[in-house]
Amino acid sequence: MNDVDLDCTTPNRPYILGVRDDLKRAVLFQPRCKQWSCPYCSGVNQARWAARAYMGTATFQDRGIAVCFLTLTSHESLNPIQTRWVFPRAWKKLSQRARRAAEGFEYLMVPEQHEDGRLHIHAVETSDLGEGWWKDNARQSGLGYMDEETHIRKPQGAAAYVAKYLSKSLEVLDWPGNFHRVRTSRRWPPLQALETPPGWEFRSLPLSTSLQEVYQAYARQGYAIRLLGSSDAWRFIESD
Known about the structure:
Layout: E1 16-20, E2 25-29, H1 39-62, E3 68-74, H2 80-101, E4 107-113, E5 119-125, H3 131-141, E6 143-151, H4 155-170, E7 183-184, E8 201-204, H5 211-220, E9 224-227, H6 230-237
Parallel strand pairs: 2-9
Antiparallel strand pairs: 1-2, 1-8, 3-5, 3-6, 4-5, 4-7
Helix pairs in contact: 1-4, 2-3
């Protein structure tokens, strides 16, 4: 059996068996856990969200829709813990107002815990409502009185913006367990789903499965079978 490369190392993940019968190739690997607490997966998550910011911005700009960077502060009378408690309701109220004021309002938003522990909001959004509107309505919704809204010229800027603030969020170790590091409106364009490579079939194995028995069974049938980490597994699959 092969050495497993070290990428995602979160324990208790089921193994995936991938088989391509026509080429007699097989691979065993654990998919990544996708958790922000995982050093490997957090980097992949960050890259994927940056890509989604890029793609969404490009999609809207191709339709002639202006896309902006938006920064909002928390209410100055709130302490760090209170800003987290107020944030979900305040953003929901504010985004509903923005949707009524700007038809087709969409966003990809990254909450940032500032140096003093208070939350700030950074978003790529399509309202183009202007700083005056955001200042008044953010205040009335329970957020701070400081804001900034500027136009995005190129999708690369949106990707860099999201990557920057996600990097900052990864430095914070005490996020609540159910706190979402990225939030989007329902119609912010998703990344395209990856297609199953032609000829390959995949299935998840129960945790109690003996990998050695599976490996040996396919080896006896003449399959070139590998036990790999997720990154090397996909390189093996795509090397056909």
